[in-house]
Amino acid sequence: MSAFLSISEVVKDFGASAGGAPFRAVDHVSLEIAQGEIFALLGSSGCGKSTLLRLLAGFETPTSGSILLNGQDLVKLAPHERPLNMMFQSYALFPHLSVWDNIAFGLKREGLPKAQVSERVEAMLKLVQLGKLAQRKPHQLSGGQQQRVALARSLARQPSLLLLDEPLGALDKKLREETQIELVHILKSVGVTCVMVTHDQEEAMTMAGRIAVMSEGRILQVGAPRDIYENPATRFVAEFIGNVNVMEGALAVRPEKIRLGRHLPPAQPLVPLNQVQGRVRDIAYFGSYTVYHLQLPSGQTLKVSQSNSERHPDDTLAQGDEAWAWWSPSAQVVLTR
Ligand SMILES: Nc1ncnc2c1ncn2[C@@H]1O[C@H](COP(=O)(O)OP(=O)(O)OP(=O)(O)O)[C@@H](O)[C@H]1O
Ligand SMILES: [Mg+2]
User: Fold this and answer.
1) Tell me, what's the pLDDT at 177?
2) What are the C-alpha distances in Å from 152 to residues 60, 103, 177?
3) What is the mean pLDDT of the chain?
């Protein structure tokens, strides 16, 4: 993979000028991002995601380290000189301007000839399917429509790099899920390289080709969604991405990789299984799957998730029932830290 965006050993300290000890918001971050990639920075609140994005955009200056875009040193450029665009969580649409004028704003300011502004705005409206609403003001749009206007405005100047800070943060869950896929289609059709920030692991997994998991200013692991989910390197990553059972000896098993029943399956000599017996303590029904909490003799609780593929299974487990849980050794992951 050839790096299009190359971030190396970037550090950002805040507050050193105030006399106190500086606070390190970004701690020796290095990332290589390829052209056309959709890359997600994922981590909990305060871990430094927005700060890293703001360093890329030029709203903050790194304490040390370098940022290259297509071989060009970004740190030397003022924000408006950088061939990129950042879309903020709040969208910051101009309330008094129509959809059309919101999208045209940056193009006009750039001094693009009128005919070209028109052409570009129409293309963007088509891309985000808002042609019919071009004359509306932002307050006359739904949250999802506003989000699309903000996206169209960010893409209008054809940036080489698009930075999205919590792009769907203002939308409710259902709309958010629909918009995730739509947004990926739009980004891919334009081919723009995109670094997005989210604290929502499902969103990162749905949208991004690769994810960097951040904690306390540091990158803990970088990989495709499946890599990170199936082979988490650390306990933090395993627990942050989805649900996991961490057993003694730092073995991790995902709840959906465990089977549950009143009886163990008939032994197969060539397929050794890990097995434990326990008592069903809690049952949480989620529609497409059910999560069982199995109380083990050791005192540990094992989370087991079973898909509800049948509508009326004959022998469902109830609270208080004795049950066996079993899983294949290949379902286990050894955590290094
Ligand atoms: N200008 C600043 N001065 C001092 N500290 C700051 C400044 N900006 C951010 N920080 C601190 O740096 C840390 C990282 O902040 P950042 O905004 O990058 O977090 P985040 O990962 O985007 O979190 P969230 O998910 O809540 O948006 C936080 O502890 C924050 O308080
Ligand atoms: Mg943030």
Assistant:
1) 87
2) 25, 6, 19
3) 91
Angle at which helices 114-127 and 99-109 pack, to 10 degrees? 130
> 312: number of CA atoms within 13 Å, CB side?
0
Q: What gap in Å lies between CA 265 and CA 59, rounded to an integer? A: 59
What residue spans define the domains of the chain?
243-334
Helix (H) or strand (E) holding 191: none
- How distant, in Å, are the alpha carbons of 88, 146, 147 from that of 100? 19, 12, 14
Question: pLDDT tens digits for 303-313?
Answer: 999 998 877 66
Which protein residue has the closest C-alpha to ligand 1 atom 24? 45
Alpha carbon nearest to ligand 1 atom 11, residue: 25
For the CA of 53, the closest atom of ligand 1 is 18
Nearest to 220 by CA among 59, 18, 40, 29: 29
Task: Give nearest CA residue, ligand 1 atom 20.
Answer: 46
The finding on whether 47 has its CB within 6 A of some atom of ligand 1 is yes
CATH number given to 243-334: 2.40.50.100
Looking at per-residue pLDDT, the higher value among 118 and 143 belongs to 118
pLDDT at 17 over 70: no
CA dist 107 → 120, 131, 190 (Å): 9, 18, 17
Ligand 1 in reach of 50 Cβ (< 6 A): yes
Answer for the pair 65, 11: CB distance below 8 angstroms, yes or no: yes
